[in-house]
ABC transporter substrate-binding protein (Aquamicrobium soli), 443 residues
Amino acid sequence: MVTKIPLGAWDVSRREFLRYSGLVGAGGLAALYAGRSPAFASDAVDLDFAVWTYAVDEVEANVKAWQDANAGMSVKLQDYPWDTYKATMVQRLATSTPTDVLYNNGSWLAEFVAAGWVVPVSKYLDFEKYRDKIIPYALSGLTFNNEPYGLPYYADIASFIWNPTVAKQYGVDRAPTSWDEVMEMSLSMQKKGLRSPILWEFSQVNPSSLDEFIAMSMSRGDEVFDADMNPIFEDPNSPAFQQAQFMADTIKQELAATSPAENDAVRSMNSGQHVFTCMYNYNLAAMNNKGQPLAGQFELLKMPGSKGATLGYVRFYSITSMAAARGDAVAAAAGKFVEAMGGAPDGTFNVPKKWAINRGLGFGVRPLFDDPEVVQAFSSWVNVPMLKEQQELAQTKREAKWTGIWGDTMLRELSKAFAGEVSVEEAMKASADKARELKQQYQ
């Protein structure tokens, strides 16, 4: 049974959040934590597992299989919408609402570690046997200060996707190789009757929107911060500024429509009203699913920018400080659960393989690239050699403990620029000012 608790149940002010974070960092977790007693070696163990809402039936099946194989272990699963998931986790963890294992994100890892909310998984499972098996960008994404904080739930890239069938109907018979060509082709198709050839998945509360924006900036040559975490995107010549201006221009000219969430975007792409989009790659599997009206028409393209790079990202299972505080039995159970979900305790990455075959989720471990069943399944919806080529160009974005907070500002400012409320220059300056303020605050 999946239990859903309203977001408002954990409303907490910024002042309270900072106070809770300070207590946790100072060893106040035991004082804050309440609601469950520590478990001892002879006790049955209950774990609270928090996830975002995606294929919950599949998650439930994986949890049930683990419980059936581990007598005395029980897992309470709670799921929350992706667009409010991070805010919900901040509130849960800051107020010590029972949470033992959770889906984590490289974009938030530094922030969560600094607050003392998650612990290195190497304390509770043999991580070294997995280190060389994890894809480099995925390993980078789940590591902070040389410590690993999870095993991959999935790892993937942001992909540039198109529908060549619809494009051909409007006079475009080849793939674009640059952003200039994306603009030229879109203008041409619009003149021939396709109102909005481009679809952006964008909402100011959707973290995927920022990842996709950064991925497209990477394709132009760089991301949003330099190696010292100074913002570089307010420079009009920077890749990120150019991408923001490109997106704003396409929306203003009605060359592009926006969709607030991936499920909506998948449906919109299958309406035949759009040709180009940039989304997490697993959405290509959803677009080409046999139940979709235009299944089989969508293809992965190399990112159009001069560099051709994209964002590689990882989502992973983390163990919380609350689990560790409950004692060795709970911490060991959490480690065992994480390894079952993201690792190969019996030599095979069973759960990641299941996600790859059943849902088209990318994986963060190398052995699955050589698994015949996975290769066969992926070949039904994506050009596997092209996927491997784009994966080789994937890179993780630079992170600091404050970048998760900054991302909220960046999305709001981009939203205002795309709505025409402010110029791209004004939006980039406001976002850069916020980045500098946060960097100074957290030093």
User: Anything to note?
Assistant: The CA atoms of residues 217 and 240 lie 5 Å apart. Residues 1-35 have pLDDT under 50 and may be disordered.
